[in-house]
Design a protein that fits this description.
Elements (H helix, E strand, L loop, with lengths): L13 H6 L3 E8 L4 H13 L2 E7 L8 H7 L2 H4 L2 E4 L2 H10 L3 E5 L6 E2 L11 E5 L8 H6 L2 E4 L11 H17 L1
Parallel strand pairs: 1-2, 1-6, 2-3, 4-6, 4-7, 5-7
């Protein structure tokens, strides 16, 4: 085996990426504190051709050198928008027919591996604050709570890890 050089990866340029077919997923960042986490979510969203990222509440927005450190240019390729209030955003997305998944440990949550996507359905996944998680008011208006099962002693994963796990799982369900 030989490690591939960057030029051998045949990656799209930004213009081609913007025109390419997207995975029918939207990421909503609900009050994310860490600029590194925000940048990481941009980079992961680029990797899985996510349609759009919404940055809500206290979540910082590009341009920002700390976000750029982990995004590595993905703030230029992934479409994003700032919306102050997450609850109003969720309601607007639902009015457009988007099913909203709060990624949270909650009563009656669906385990990620058991979540079945509907054909021709667009989804938004909400990632919550590093300490408090997704706001209860946001959970109240979401269509589903989806949970990543965990079997160790800790009760949560870092938001950038959570985003990677969730997007990969949903991406596979859409694409394969």
């Amino acid at each position: 085996m030989r490690k591939l050089k960057n030029k051998e990866l045949n990656r799209l340029n930004i213009e081609a990426f913007k025109e390419a077919k997207k995975t029918p997923l939207i990421v909503v960042l609900d009050n994310i504190r860490s600029l590194n986490n925000i940048g990481s979510v941009f980079r992961t969203s680029d990797a899985f051709a996510i349609e759009k990222i919404y940055l809500c509440g206290i979540t910082a927005t590009p341009p920002n050198k700390e976000i750029h450190k982990t995004a590595l240019g993905a703030t230029d390729s992934v479409v994003w928008e700032y919306v102050e209030d997450t609850v109003s955003l969720v309601k607007k997305l639902q009015e457009k027919g988007v099913k909203v998944l709060a990624i949270e440990q909650a009563e009656n949550s669906v385990k990620l591996q058991n979540f079945i996507i509907e054909e021709n359905q667009k989804y938004a996944v909400i990632m919550g604050n590093e300490v408090k998680g997704v706001q209860q008011e946001v959970i109240n208006v979401s269509d589903y709570c989806v949970e990543i099962p965990q079997y160790g002693t800790k009760h949560s994963l870092n938001i950038s890890v959570t985003t990677g796990v969730v997007l990969w799982d949903l991406f596979k369900k859409f694409r394969f």
